[in-house]
């Protein structure tokens, strides 16, 4: 079965530190890849997405992610985090589904806490 | 404004008392889905619907029912809630035709079953 693994469950950083959150998926076919962010008390919002083309994608708020097909990875990065980046981050992958619809499969999430 | 609206946002109930969480979207999306979010488990799909009158089980459907009588609404029904259904619930919607799978989420409904 398809699955998504996020390696870090909790990450604590100081402001201005660099961030990299790992995401690996287990599916050998064509996939679309997403990172969603959930700020405290809020719903999930799309941070960035990859469908095809340049494997380095840029999202909102200075985030970017790199798709490495050979490693089945889609790691999220930000050069310098801010206190306002404190949130939970979810990697998600959609893969072909028998009903013709691409089901979105989520990782367990990574809680990021940024200290001033 | 394009949105997915859930109600109630917060609910405390007791074991066995039937409840319904409503979900409505105004984007004319064909696909709708319910997820539950639990610490360390991420989001798990409960049920989904690809269009009106078409629903199917997700990964954790036990104890839940859904209906899709209209395109915009997709209520989640707990016929006899139990404490293990205490969770944060999210409704989401998406286009289907040509869709990349990007989901639009509601604000969430935090349910506590005593």
Give a written overview of the molecule.
The complex is a heterodimer of chains A (116) and B (114). Chain A is an all-beta fold and 116 residues long. Chain A is built from no helices and 12 strands. Chain A has strands at 4-5, 10-14, 19-21, 24-25, 32-38, 44-50, 56-58, 64-68, 73-78, 87-95, 103-106, 110-115. In chain A, a hairpin with a 4-residue loop joins β8 (64-68) and β9 (73-78). The model of chain A has no long low-confidence stretch (mean pLDDT 89). By secondary structure, chain B is mainly beta. In chain B, the strands form 2 sheets. In chain B, strands 2, 4, 5, 6, 9, 10 and 11 form a 7-stranded mixed β-sheet that branches. A 4-stranded antiparallel β-sheet of chain B has the order 1-3-8-7, with no helix packed on it. In chain B, a hairpin with a 2-residue loop joins β5 (42-51) and β6. The radius of gyration of chain B is 13 Å and the shape is globular. Chain B starts with a strand and ends with a strand.
Distance between the termini of chain B: 36 Å
Following the backbone from N to C, one meets helices and strands of chain B in this order, namely: EEEEEEEEEEE
Number of helices of chain A: 0
* Strand runs of chain B, count: 11
Largest interface: A-B, 22 and 22 residues
| Overall SS class of chain B | mainly beta
What integer is the average pLDDT of chain A? 89
Count of helical regions of chain B? 0
Biggest β-sheet strands, sense, barrel of chain B: 7 strands, mixed
Structure at a glance:
Chain A has 116 residues and is mostly beta strands. Chain A is built from no helices and twelve strands. The relative contact order of chain A is 0.33.
Topology of helices and strands:
The complex is a heterodimer of chains A (116) and B (114).
Chain A: E1 4-5, E2 10-14, E3 19-21, E4 24-25, E5 32-38, E6 44-50, E7 56-58, E8 64-68, E9 73-78, E10 87-95, E11 103-106, E12 110-115
Parallel strand pairs in A: 2-12
Antiparallel strand pairs in A: 1-4, 3-9, 5-6, 5-10, 7-8, 8-9, 10-11, 10-12
Chain B: E1 4-7, E2 10-13, E3 19-25, E4 31-38, E5 42-51, E6 54-57, E7 65-66, E8 76-78, E9 87-94, E10 104-105, E11 109-113
Parallel strand pairs in B: 2-11
Antiparallel strand pairs in B: 1-3, 3-8, 4-5, 4-9, 5-6, 7-8, 9-10, 9-11
């Amino acid at each position: 079965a398809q699955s998504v693994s996020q390696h870090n469950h909790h990450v604590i950083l100081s402001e201005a530190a660099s961030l990299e959150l790992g995401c690996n998926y287990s599916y050998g076919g064509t996939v679309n890849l997403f990172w969603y962010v959930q700020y405290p008390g809020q719903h999930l919002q799309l941070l960035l997405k990859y469908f095809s083309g340049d494997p380095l994608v840029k999202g909102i708020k200075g985030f970017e992610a790199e798709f490495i097909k050979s490693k089945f990875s889609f790691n999220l990065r930000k050069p310098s985090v801010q206190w306002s980046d404190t949130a939970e981050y979810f990697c998600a992958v959609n893969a072909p589904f028998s009903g013709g619809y691409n089901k979105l499969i989520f990782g367990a999430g990574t809680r990021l806490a940024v200290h001033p | 404004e394009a949105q997915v609206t859930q109600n109630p946002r917060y609910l405390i109930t007791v074991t066995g008392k039937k409840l319904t969480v409503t979900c409505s979207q105004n984007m004319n999306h064909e696909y709708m889905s319910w997820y539950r979010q639990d610490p360390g488990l991420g989001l798990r799909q409960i049920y989904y619907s690809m269009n009106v009158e078409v629903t199917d089980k997700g990964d954790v459907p036990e104890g839940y029912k859904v209906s899709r009588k209209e395109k915009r609404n997709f209520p989640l029904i707990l016929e006899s809630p139990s404490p293990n259904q205490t969770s944060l619930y999210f409704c989401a919607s998406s286009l289907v035709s040509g869709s990349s799978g990007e989901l639009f989420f509601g604000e969430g409904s935090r349910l506590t079953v005593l």
